[in-house]
């Protein structure tokens, strides 16, 4: 009954969102379902679904349940004036914040799962591979948001792209900063903070568990199950 209630409440924003962003032949199938608890703060830019199969509700925005959060009072934010590219199915859970600025590009691989209360802040380019899982309260940002200028009036902290390889798992409360590139099958331990400088100190390998302070490889030849 509750599921039916949530679907009914989602109808107005779902219709608006699909016909706002997608060509009619795709929009009529309502491939993106948008919860009534999503604040469409800014709905500009472009949303593309680059998939041969378009079906209803293949992309969910603001839905999902995580037992330690109150989804009834959790609000998601869509603040987009750049480009968001989907490659297939995706679940962006309740309380997620997505911010893509004018020149930003967010590339989302097939079968992305973001659980709850996470933030994605994109000013340049963030690429999430296929079968990527992002746990709760993670933060991914390719910019420092405020420029740092040296004595010669040169900005020294320019935005840098982030690339997360296929089949990776980003643990809860992980922070990924600009310039981070993770190989396929990377598992990032909960609470870790990764920047480009930290990753230079380790020899990155596929299917590794990384974390700690300083960041290091904790286990090799590992995988995970959803």
TrEMBL record:
**SUPFAM superfamilies, alphabetized:** Trimeric LpxA-like enzymes
The lineage's top-level taxon is Bacteria
| Protein name according to UniProt | Galactoside O-acetyltransferase
Q: Which organism is it from?
A: Clostridium sulfidigenes
